[in-house]
Amino acid sequence: MTANAEPRRRPNVVVVLLDDVGWGAAGTFGGPVRTPTLDAMCGEGLAYNRFHTTAICSPTRAALLTGRDAHAAGVGTVLNSANAHPGYEGVLRPECATVAEMLRQDGYSTACVGKWHLAPPWESSQAGPFDRWPTGQGFERFYGFLGGETHQYQPTLYEGTTPVEPPDTPGYHLTEDLVDQSIRWIRMQHAMAPDRPFFLYLAPGATHAPLHVPPEWSERYRGRFAHGWDAERDAILARQIERGVVPEGTRMTPRPEEIPSWDGLSDHERAVAERLMEVYAGFLEHTDVQVGRLIDELRRGGLYDDTLFIYIVGDNGSSAEGGLPGSINYMGALQGMNESPAGTLARLDEIGTADSYPQYPAGWAWAMTAPFQWVKQIASHLGGTRNPMAVTWPNGIAGSGLRTQFSHVNDIAPTILEAAGLAMPETVNGAVQEPMHGTSLVYSFDDPDAPERHTTQYFEVYGHRSLYHEGWMASAHHGGVPWGVGVPGEDRPFEDDVWELYDLAADFSQANDLAAAEPARLAELQRLFEREAGRVGILPLRDARVSRTRMPNLARGRKSFTYYPGAVGIPESNAPRMLGRSWTLTAALEITGRPRGVIATMGGRAAGWSLYVGADARPVFVYRTFELAVAELAPDLVLDPGPHELKVDFTADSDGIGRGGTLVLTADGTRAAGARLAATPPAIFSIDETFDIGLNTGSPVGDHPPAFPFAGGEIRRVDIVLD
């Protein structure tokens, strides 16, 4: 490797991984969203236009950090759909240690800031164990969130392994906080140990839903998307060709029949979809600018030239999980509980604020992967797996410009090791290591024409699968659409899938299926896929959407629970299962002064319930089912000093999942209030909010401040009994 100057020491390493950004979103790569930081990095460093992720969140992160194929590392599916089949357990294997642990043991300071999504839910409470948390996987410092998403204004945060509240600052936004935390850590590390290199893994929640951004950012795009997603895709491809990030002659792929045309929408639907896209665009630009603040800090501190900085724009393609219309509360839309279009239209100005939980429509997600087919989750096609990447390292890379070699997220760890001058250890913490499956990209740093070295790569998510080999790709879509959760899917036979064949050297966008013309070549790639799937242990193939098994769970087999103050940050999936059934919650209190604060809560702004005492010393119980139903029990009853018992009974209707029911609040044995609840969530309140006693972590369900710890007395115990 040649360089502008010999590195004074092993390089610092920064890896930034954005969330749910499709190939065609960033302006640097022809998209409609301004990305000045990415512009600058690609202008002075390297831009990779054939970089690939796994098509979904957790597997991409596992492959990035371990350098192994995601299934081999134990995380072949997103943790929310982990199962007991080999490769899909959602538990990182010790034989596939992270690059963070390897660097830490070789003298690097290490920090993970932002999204993790690699800790099994049953290990994500304060009961531990903490082996699969960042601090158990090689990171000396962790500040961020464990799940797949979080509220950007009122996030569920951890420092190390302890739940913490975000800073109480006006105009708080999580992405800004994460960059602030990163800057503080770098300053501290350099001040205390200036000769020690550092590894920072910064993974913002942006631009995963909920789409949250201050209005001044979304207002920059007001009216920008009135022409709709069909026209925007064409405009993106034209800009991509003009900027040289795709070859001349690249063809546009057609819109999936499941996604409506823009012209086929009603005026109301277009107005909602347009506003959602404006907010998404502001969210992405805001995120890119925050990454720029981190680079500015490295420059100010004299650290930038000695830093290998890798900026990966998305952990998969853009997300269609907002469904066809998009939503102001997409967690309900995922479960088939969409709000009315008229209701959303009346609240357009709330989209992007703390009172919303939005996601844009599937049509915009598809547009943001132009010119490719499909989106996030669809590992068979490049719309799910192709993402932009930029790399800079002034003291280590002499070259600049576009790099067209095939590359994959599992290449990142071996690239870091080679840049640091380290060989992969044979054992880590007593575990014999499986070789890395990725290929270091250092060979491409100074030679744009170097033959690619990563010549074969399989992909598989939810049965969608593909195999890349020496310029060709075989692809098999496994049916279904990439939106909806909690609704049983079809267990489709894999032999019913239709394989396609593409010559990517001549067909950049997968527009020309050659399966009929080249059956022998397709058969060879299918054979290679079977070989690779066997190598990582996932034969026979299974669809993780429908192939569910019993996984460890802290609440399984129990119908009676007792909790005490300090029980906070319990994942909803491992808390009492209160959906689809009747239940009783009883709280024993000892009031010593003027009480106020949360007694018990589950969920957050999207949906959930909360029992709390308001600032007026009156008990309140509120239950929120997305935008469809809200019930609030707020009796005119002051809790005076002394012992009190508050009890909430929910009696479910008898008509199945998602059913409503009756709520009754009893105070000291006397009925105090009651209400009818029209509906309950069919599957989940959220994937990020938690169950807490004595305070609220994350966003609140009720009309009270975010944390609102209980004061003016003692919570003796909280009992929950399930029918």
Structure description:
The protein has 723 residues and is α+β, with helices and mostly antiparallel strands. Strands 1, 2, 3, 4, 5, 6, 7, 8, 9, 10 and 11 form an eleven-stranded mixed beta sheet that branches. Strands 18, 19, 20, 21, 22, 23, 24, 25, 26, 27 and 28 form an eleven-stranded antiparallel beta sheet that branches. A hairpin with a 3-residue loop joins strand 22 (619-625) and strand 23.
State the shape.
globular
Q: By helix and strand content, what is the structural category?
A: alpha+beta
The biggest sheet, with number of strands, parallel, antiparallel or mixed sense and barrel status, is: 11 strands, mixed
Please mark out the parts with pLDDT under 50 across 5 or more consecutive residues, or reply none: 1-8
Helix residue percentage: 10-25%
Number of strands: 28
**What would the average pLDDT be, to the nearest integer?**
96
What separation lies between the terminal Cα atoms?
67 Å
Percentage of β-strand residues: 15-25%
Count up the helices: 15
> How large, in whole angstroms, is the Cα Rg?
25 Å
Characteristics of this structure?
disordered N terminus; 723 residues
What is the topology?
Blueprint: E1 12-17, H1 36-44, E2 46-52, H2 57-66, H3 70-73, H4 99-105, E3 109-115, E4 141-145, E5 157-159, E6 162-164, H5 174-192, E7 198-203, H6 215-218, H7 229-243, H8 267-300, E8 307-312, H9 330-334, H10 341-345, H11 362-367, H12 382-385, E9 386-392, E10 401-403, E11 407-408, H13 412-419, E12 427-428, E13 431-432, H14 442-445, E14 456-461, E15 464-469, E16 472-476, E17 499-503, H15 519-535, E18 560-563, E19 570-571, E20 583-603, E21 608-613, E22 619-625, E23 629-633, E24 642-652, E25 661-667, E26 670-677, E27 690-693, E28 711-722
Parallel strand pairs: 1-7, 1-8, 2-10, 2-11, 3-4, 3-7
Antiparallel strand pairs: 2-9, 4-5, 5-6, 8-9, 12-13, 14-15, 15-16, 16-17, 18-28, 19-27, 20-21, 20-24, 20-27, 20-28, 21-22, 22-23, 24-25, 25-26
Helix pairs in contact: 5-8
